[in-house]
Amino acid sequence: MVGTTDQELLELIQNPFTKERGYRMLVETYQRRVYGIIRKMVIVHEDADDLTQNTFIKAFKNLDKFQGNSSLFTWLYRIATNESLNFLEKKKKRFFFSIEDHHQVMSTYLESSPDISGSEVEKKLQKSLLGLPEKQRLVFNLKYFEDMSYEEMSQVTDTSVGALKASYHHAVKKIEQDLTTE
Fold this sequence. Notes:
Blueprint lengths: L5 H9 L4 H24 L2 H17 L10 H24 L3 H14 L7 H11 L3 H12 L4 H8 L3 H21 L1
Helix pairs in contact: 1-2, 2-3, 2-4, 3-4, 4-8, 5-6, 6-9, 7-9
GO molecular function: DNA binding; sigma factor activity
Keywords: DNA-binding, Sigma factor, Transcription, Transcription regulation
Family: Belongs to the sigma-70 factor family. ECF subfamily.
């Protein structure tokens, strides 16, 4: 599996005799990274786990639509991002959460969940991130935690580089303000 290229994975998946192995290798190769970005967006492990699974199911069902204009990683991240944003939007509508209520519920979860580890500084950062609009939080996560270039982020989010730079700048300013006022 080590060193398997996107092209090799695609060939395995497209061959009826190696399809299952190819799909398994795709999941093994990208699952941890996809889960990480989803978890940073939705916070709750069980939700992130479900959305990660949904991401790979959707990818597998739509692999024939993958045009190769980007890497498989970028394509999967785009699916994961959309899954996360749609989930958060549905969750707010379903539970009639205001943004403040949702922020409070997730902050409490960060404090009390045994699944959340990290120093106090890391928890403060996560709480601060919860206060950002979803798109800004996504852009911050991709840039700060995933160290993606603006060009890569543009492919993942289907947003212009200029808009991404502005979102990241606003996110950083809000986080700085949040962390210095506590």
